[in-house]
Write a structure and sequence with these properties.
The protein is α+β, with helices and mostly antiparallel strands. It folds into 2 domains: 60 residues, 434 Repressor (Amino-terminal Domain) (Orthogonal Bundle); 103 residues, Sandwich (Jelly Rolls), CATH 2.60.120.10. The chain has 5 helices and 10 strands, in the order H-H-H-H-H-E-E-E-E-E-E-E-E-E-E. Helix 2 crosses helix 4. The radius of gyration is 22 Å and the shape is elongated. The termini are far apart. The model has no long low-confidence stretch (mean pLDDT 87).
């Protein structure tokens, strides 16, 4: 018998950590993976050891390698995503004048979105409230922008930064005479 067999990895703890880091409930992971909620609970609590197929389904639903769930260490970081300019989606809501280019890769964790925003002079974009706890961050690159958030309003010029509550109704207005450009991050 080999005395140097390594300890069994903490698969349940790893699964729970990966699920929690993505803010998923057991039910949400069950739906995404096709594994029952009861089985996921038993795996996370260490009551059962999952089959390779079950691990593969869970890893696929979490967008991680199976190795992350079995605790294998990697010599390279496994968080490295690339998105070319051609792959970036562009949103131009009705009413025109404001264009949002989505800068974040779909593989990133839910709750993080980055945008490059272009606004024509006089353009206004009204935004409905996002989910509870959402925060938005804006950095103006060029031009003059007015951000209204609930009862608050601020005029920002190139180089100015603003953070506000995305769970309140908010708007963006180019109140300058030239096109405006800004970077925006939604984080929830």
């Amino acid at each position: 018998m080999n005395e140097f067999i390594p300890e069994i990895p903490p698969v349940g703890e790893n699964l729970k950590r990966e699920r929690a880091s993505r803010h998923l409930s057991l039910g949400e992971l069950a739906k995404a993976s096709g594994i029952s909620k009861a089985m996921l609970s038993q795996i996370e609590s260490g009551k059962v050891n999952p089959t390779l197929v079950t691990l593969w389904k869970a890893a696929h639903a979490l967008s991680v390698d199976v190795a992350q769930l079995i605790g294998e260490k990697k010599s390279k970081p496994d968080y490295f995503y690339s998105l070319t300019g051609e792959q970036q989606a562009c949103i131009a809501p009705e009413g025109g004048g404001v264009e949002f280019k989505i800068l974040t890769a779909p593989e990133l964790p839910a709750g993080l979105e980055m945008y490059h925003v272009l606004a024509a002079p006089g353009a206004v974009h009204l935004s409905e409230p996002h989910g509870e706890g959402c925060r938005e961050f804006v950095l103006v690159v060029k031009g003059t922008i007015r951000i209204t958030n609930g009862e608050h309003s601020a005029v920002l010029n190139a180089g100015d930064f603003l953070a506000y509550d995305g769970a309140l109704p908010h708007s963006l207005e180019n109140c300058g005479k030239k096109p405006a450009e800004l970077h925006m991050i939604d984080f929830s």
